Amino acid sequence: MEFYLEGSEPVNFWMLQSGWRPRLLLIFMVACFYSGAVLINNELLFFWASDASYRYWFYPPAGIRLALLMLFGLPGLIGYFVAALAILSSEIIPEVTGFYGAFLVAVARALSLWLGLTLYGALTGIKSPWDRLTWQHVPFLAFFVSFLSAVVAHVAYISLGVESLDTLVRGVALNVLGDTLGTIFVLILIIRIRKGYLRSRERFEQSRNANGFAASD
Fold first, then answer.
1. Kindly report the CA angle at 203 between 199 and 208, in degrees rounded to 5?
2. At what angle do helices 138-160 and 98-124 cross, to 10 degrees?
3. Long-range contacts of range 15-23, CB-CB < 8 Å, 24 or more positions apart?
4. Per residue in 144-166, pLDDT tens?
5. pLDDT of 47-63, one tens digit each?
6. Residue 1 DSSP one-character state
7. Of 19, 22, 206, 209, which alpha carbon lies 20 to 30 A from 136's?
């Protein structure tokens, strides 16, 4: 997966790294960044936005993990998996106990994100390098990926005996709501920041060109 830089060719962050150490460092940085985002969200910012089962009706880390995957591709996916495994192994969700349960849920979460992005791109043509992604597409992308991720995660919970089929609909609905709202918030914020950067760069280029012409006269 690649990331599009305006006015340049797409950049593949995985192939950009020449050795295994830089690649491992990128994966480690992604994992640390996402883990930190979850910790800050759950403990400081939006701890009040969850129910007793740790389901959030507004969950910005969902948008952060999707952005990391869109930006960094395979390293982002592996980094998110590592972070999810570490978070679940710490029993932040008390019902998920043991390494096997944490591993299963982390795999399900990571693969569902990748599958969601891949399917959405195949259905809409909005895919890597994401140069066609605008704020109008964000709600649909956010809902599609959040729904698929929530369904896959809750199937994993049911297989572990953490949840039952009776709670499937409610659990999926709450997760989809929180992840969708959080993803919309994060992705639109990124798009606005990117547009602001491009405008400021364009003004800078125009100013530099104007000064250059003035100097030549």
1. 150
2. 150
3. 23/75
4. 999 999 899 888 888 887 777 77
5. 655 655 566 778 899 99
6. -
7. 206
